[in-house]
Amino acid sequence: MVTMEDVQAAGERIRDMVRETPVKASASLSALAGGPVWLKCEHRQETGAFKLRGASNAVARLGDVAGVTTASTGNHGRALAHAARQLGMPAVICVSRLVPQNKLAAIEALGAEARVIGASQDEAFNEAYRLKHDEGFALIPPFDHEDVIAGQGTLGMEIIRQIPDAATLAIPLSGGGLLAGVALAAKSLRPDIRIVGISMERGAAMAASLKADHPVEVEELETLADSLGGGIGLKNRFTFPMVRELMDELILLSEDEIATGIRHLALEDNEVVEGAAAVGSGAIIAGKLQAAGGPLVLILSGGNIDPERHAEIVRGAK
């Protein structure tokens, strides 16, 4: 399993490849949550999402390969393309038809190929596996990989350094790479810290897998939190057991609650984020999440939302 020593090594390895992102107090959410709420602004990472941490750590540990590939809902693919370009490697990012066009364009702008395959992340993975076996590419999955999890864990170390009295971390939950890494680091430094995972009601594979007590497939549906879509893999080795062990609570949100979170962060905190990053805000406003026993930290995991779609959502609040 991934260890705290792996996370600390990743922090040294990617020090010059990623940004330390700021934290910001939210007066409006603090009033609603009944205690201090801090926003960890990881959407200000260079590629617009936390995924750059794990992708950079994984690519930096590769040897001689033909290139790198993955299947992604967008943000991991963009991060992998960026890391590959930094190290002079070709990259082919396999995506499903559900991935928004703005995320495809961002991948291609980094010099990688965005290859659209099928209607689900699982179908896109089939092409990534073919590239691995037939063409010698290194396949770096978006979450269930030791180096990816360790890289995401550097975010947990950063949060505890910036807000040492944090009592609760609210973490967007999809395949579990972010929650597994952040929770490992945070609980290694602060064993009493509370970890809350938040996902959408529509097609949340990790939530269904935890309920079944083993990885299961779910239908991938369109959702405002598109970055939280996709399966966790029936042969999941790392993130499923780590999430099951380290997460203290799971919250699921409706599409309206996610939209409300996006609007609130835009209108009250002047932060433009995608649906996955707004789940913490949406949970507070829905009365599902409180700041209990000390500061609550919301990870704003990404800001890669189509500007026109964001404007439509925000106008819905008026």
Overview of this structure, please?
By secondary structure, the chain is an alpha/beta fold. Helix content is 44%, strand content 14%. It has 13 helices and 10 strands. Strand 7, helix 8 (177-189) and strand 8 (194-200) form a beta-alpha-beta unit. Helix 3 packs across helix 4 and helix 8 (177-189) packs across helix 10 (239-246). The chain starts with a helix and ends with a helix. 59% of the residues are buried.
Ordered list of secondary-structure elements with their pairings:
Elements: H1 4-13, E1 23-25, H2 27-33, E2 37-40, H3 51-60, E3 68-71, H4 75-86, E4 91-95, H5 101-109, E5 113-116, H6 121-135, E6 138-139, H7 146-162, E7 168-172, H8 177-189, E8 194-200, H9 205-212, H10 239-246, E9 249-253, H11 255-269, H12 279-285, E10 296-299, H13 307-315
Parallel strand pairs: 2-10, 3-4, 3-6, 4-5, 7-8, 7-10, 8-9
Antiparallel strand pairs: 1-2
